[in-house]
Amino acid sequence: MTTIDTTAITVELPEALDERWSRLPGMHVDGRRLTIDPAGYFFRFESSTWLVADWELVKAQLLDVEETTESAVEQLALDFIKTHAESTSDAARVLRTAYGVYSYLFRDEHLASLGLPQITSGHLQMLREAATLMALNKVELDGHISNVGPCWFFPAATSVVFDLDDETGGMLDEVYHGGWFNEHRRIESIKAHAALGGRLVHGCQSVPDQSGGVVAPYGASMAAFRDDLAAFKAGWIKQVYTHRVSDPT
After folding, report:
1. Which residues contact 82 (CB under 8 A, 6 or more apart)?
2. Which domain of life is it from (predicted)?
3. Tens-digit pLDDT profile for the chain (249 aa)?
4. Distance CA 34, CA 19 (A)
5. What number of CA atoms fall less than 13 Å from residue 205's CA on the CB side?
């Protein structure tokens, strides 16, 4: 029987997080220091190991590699993961790696060409923070979802933490899961997510469905993933919304 490590997760991130993350159960933010109590934070926490690769190595050896007719970008990422990724039980390492990944993917230089003038630098910071926490979610190769935290349900969690109305939360969710609506940025995402051991996949087709996303290993069963997600999401989304401190309009 596998023993799950449920000791508190503590990490120092490069930048201070919004202190309102402490509104979610099991979370405490003190400047750059984030502490997570797995028992309080996760809805489901069945695995305390994650697959990661060194972000600096990804930047040096993968981000600038171009796909060819013989090797698509997905194959490049998969080969990199096979060669360089390793299993870790250090959740702080996962979070630091994720913060590097999402600081790159949601960087301010994209704002000028995004085509969504209502998205600001502040919104990108929200995306960086929420996506970093989502890296602790986990899907197994058989498609079973082993770890689920509130940030799985992106619009609900950002509504609680940032006092966003449903429209703004949904818009951010579209930017998060839409790869910036651009093939160039989707390719960036595939390469960058090699640092988190997989690719970003989503259970949703649209914002109202609010089925979230997770970095899943290549080869994971998407049919089982879909069925598992459908079985639990409604009740847990409702629980996230109970932590709203106001009813934004």
Report:
1. none
2. Bacteria
3. 456 778 999 999 999 999 999 999 999 999 999 999 999 999 999 999 999 999 999 999 999 999 999 999 999 999 999 999 999 999 999 999 999 999 999 999 888 876 778 889 999 999 999 999 999 999 999 999 999 999 888 888 888 999 988 788 777 877 777 655 578 888 999 999 999 999 998 765 444 455 677 999 999 999 999 889 888 888 888 898 888 886 554
4. 9
5. 1
Helix (H, G, I), strand (E, B) or coil at 221: coil
Distances from the Cα of 142 to the Cαs of 49, 110, 221, 229, in angstroms? Answer: 16, 36, 5, 13
The residue type at 156: A
Token pair recorded at residue 121 = 């630098």
Residue linked to tokens 């986990």: 138
User: What residue ranges do the domains of the chain occupy?
Assistant: 50-241
Tell me the β-bridge partners of 27: 36
- Which positions ≥6 away from 10 have C-beta within 8 Å? 33, 34, 35, 36, 92
Q: What is the pTM of this model?
A: 0.92
Tokens for 31, please give them.
Answer: 């400047």
Q: Hunting for tokens 């984030």 — which residue is that?
A: 34
Q: How many CA atoms lie within 13 A of 24 on its CB side?
A: 34
Q: Which helix (H) or strand (E) holds 215?
A: strand 213-216
Structure token pair of residue 180: 């910036």
Question: Residue with structure tokens 């990490």?
Answer: 11
